[in-house]
Amino acid sequence: MLVPEKDELTFGFIKLTDMAPLAIAYEKHFFEDEGLYVRLEPQANWKVLLDRVITGELDGAHMLAGQPLAATIGYGTKAHIVTPFSMDLNGNGITVSNEVWQMMKANVPAGADGKPQHPISASALKPVVDRFRAAGRPFNMGMVFPVSTHNYELRYWLAAGGIHPGFYGRNDTAGQIKAEALLSVTPPPQMPSTLEAGTISGYCVGEPWNQQAVFKGIGVPVITDYEIWKNNPEKVFGITAEFAEKYPNTTLAITKALIRAAKWLDENGNANRPEAVEILSRPDYVGADAKVIANSMTGTFEYEKGDKRAVPDFNVFFRHYATYPFYSDAVWYLTQMRRWGQIPEAKDDSWYDATARSVYRPDIYLKAARMLVDEGLAEESDFPWTSDGYRAPTAAFIDGLTYDGRKPNAYIDALPIGLKGADVISGGEVTGG
Fold first, then answer.
1. How many CA atoms lie within 13 A of 410 on its CB side?
2. Angle CA(366)–CA(372)–CA(377) in degrees, nearest 5?
3. Does residue 99 fall inside a structural domain?
4. Distance between CA 136 and CA 138 in Å, rounded?
5. For the segment 255-285, what is each residue's pLDDT rounded down to a tens digit?
6. pTM of structure
7. Residue 300 in 3-state DSSP?
8. Do 193 and 113 lie in a common domain?
């Protein structure tokens, strides 16, 4: 039995369904089984959450996958954050207003059943954006944070459909240089009301805030991130490198409890999801209507009102080695930071690998996993023991491009819209460096 160096802990989270491993580890006493006494605290936004982890007010937190990477390379707040545990795959969607959907729909082919064919390309949105711009109306869209999965997924989808989502400059954190669609930050729970008010015409967010738009009748989710990049990594559990070094047993104990929670969420064909939905619907956690949360957590997703489809892997917490912190996942986020100018200058492939290794900690993860197997709480086959930290190359993206985490620069150069090679943003223009 591990003896944690620090046993009273406070973890932060944002009110999204993918904080579920924290809630389940708490409610099912997995933390207590490891000798940990944990308090879970919802946070106002992602910046506050990160700042409080850095100052030590929080011992760790549910984080956007890009946050530990951005902090470690000094984009925004500078701090060395690490992750021994990836929290989930998939879980996001892109929603547009009813007005935009009616304009888009004419450009979306219908299937044999008369319903829109999925996945829906942003090329169906491009004529709408062009009409807005011709009429002098900015096309505004919301995402949750500049280094969020949502920002990069929304940008990927837009760019794959020929819509420029804008660059970041050295001293420009708005990310709207040369943009055709103007992306800005909106906190997740405020997305539906901001859409309803007409401030934004669409957004990318995690659940339950896409399904909330359907329930309120104010918008239509047009695509899930599973359709943009099948089984994409989503959130991570983040702690400071100092915490991991100072409290190694505590870090292992936390990781063990979270692995058990993730396994519980997916086991027996998602048999525990209804109970998870009830837990997440409580005010202490997500605090949304259980019916709204259940729409995605139990393997379905509703697009237009009444157009509910089976998406069994919309939320994945353990299958497909979802909890293992793959270096290649980290590298993908870094490629998108470079693509859009958040990393202002070219880096060689070895820099991407070294940065990923400094943040993602599969060594801690596998040590915790070995303990769980030895204790009879997990199976040997649950974990990728022989992985070098890189997933096999994949073309499971909406545009069919192949991503190989070992060759980040070749991937960046293959993307049709974005910075390439030695490109830099200077004076609002792209130059060759």
1. 9
2. 140
3. yes
4. 6
5. 999 999 999 999 999 999 999 999 999 999 9
6. 0.96
7. strand
8. yes
